[in-house]
Amino acid sequence: MPCPLCDNTSTWSFCQIDQAPVICNALSPTRERALLVDKARIELVFCPGCGLIYNSAYDPARIAYTGDYENSLFFSSRFREYARQQAMDLVRTHNLLRKRIVEIGCGNGDFLREICEIGNNIGAGFDPAAPAREISTNVRLVPREFDPSRDALDADLVCCRQVLEHIWSPRRFLSELRRSIGRGGTTLFLEVPNALWMLRRGDLWDVIYEHCAYYTPLALRRVLAMSGFLAGEVHPVFGEQFLTVEAVPAHVNNIHPCDDGMHEIETLVRQFQSSCVRNMSFWQERLATMYKNGATAAVWGSGSKGVTFLNALNAPLEVIPWVVDINPRKHGRYIPGAAQRVIPPEELLSHACDSVIVMNPIYIEEISRTLQSLDIQCELLTA
Question: Which H or E element spans position 85?
Fold first, then answer.
């Protein structure tokens, strides 16, 4: 299958997962339904023409984002600090005071509300999983995908955070945005997961079916250039887990050869499979030892990392019966495929838990403080 960004056919496959839940961020209401969720194959392919990594086995027809989709990170103080600083920086840099903001893929509208409150801006958010409501006097949510043919982009800032990796035809999507913007002074702000962070860690837990594409800085600059935008500097943020970039409509062709840093990406791609095998072997042995000793553990984080970790390892419920999450909208539900029950942190007090496995190291200090406040004594591990 040719690259969905640059149409290059000289690509190569480097990682496969046979049975991955199609939707990680829609938890199941019962354990029985969690065991029966739709699963599909993932085959990661690298394109040396533009630096994109993508799932060649992806079928967009299998994906549906509904009201059950829940991936808000705003219950974390660590993430709220990051998002608020990001909003403040955008307001300051672009003088976003009493301006118009559009967010494509707004989720529950947390970030949109933040940036509108800081600058007294007017915001509109589009997301098929969003509730149809006004969340403040100047922010409204629209529960459907943004449609450039019917939704005018008369905005000073267009935000698209953690969305592009879900889109199979990124060039078409961004080109339609470019046409909607016209020749005005609109700034486009993009945030995507950083593929380099995943590759350097050999982090299989970051590979999910919902993400059909994984962007390196090279690929991010390339797709913007090919879609009619002039991109600024690409910044690794949030512990280098994400990439952000600002872009404006370009009026001339600005596509340049995409080779700077490609050798490093190719090297990391070639090492990724063996790194994943080592990580998998380590955790398989660790869980086997826990099972032998009658020990139990809880995974902290019921998002995509936790779902992939539990499914890839086929983690037995006898060893990992619970997944802890601070998002109350997830409590009492079950992990797709693996079927662990999601519980709030305080429920660990009623369980004999020997270890807590933290899925994202950036939250380790926050999680440690929470466990200390609850006087929960257990080993803290990082996946």
Answer: helix 77-94
For residue 353, is pLDDT > 90?
A: yes
pTM summary value? 0.94
Residue 262 lies in a domain: no
- How many residues belong to the chain? 383
pLDDT digits (tens, 9 = 90+) for 332-347: 999 999 999 999 999 9
Strand partners, 248: 230
Which residue type is seen at 251? Answer: H
Q: Which residue's structure tokens are 């969690």?
A: 34
* Domain region containing 337: 270-382
Q: What is the pLDDT of residues 112-128, one digit of tens each?
A: 999 999 999 999 999 99
Q: CB–CB of 70/26 below 8 Å?
A: yes
Residues 159 and 225 in one domain: yes
- 282 has pLDDT over 90: yes
Number of domains within the chain: 2
CATH code of 353's domain: 3.40.50.720
3 state DSSP class of 281? helix
How many CB atoms neighbour CB 354 within 10 A?
15
CB 174 within 8 A of CB 230: no
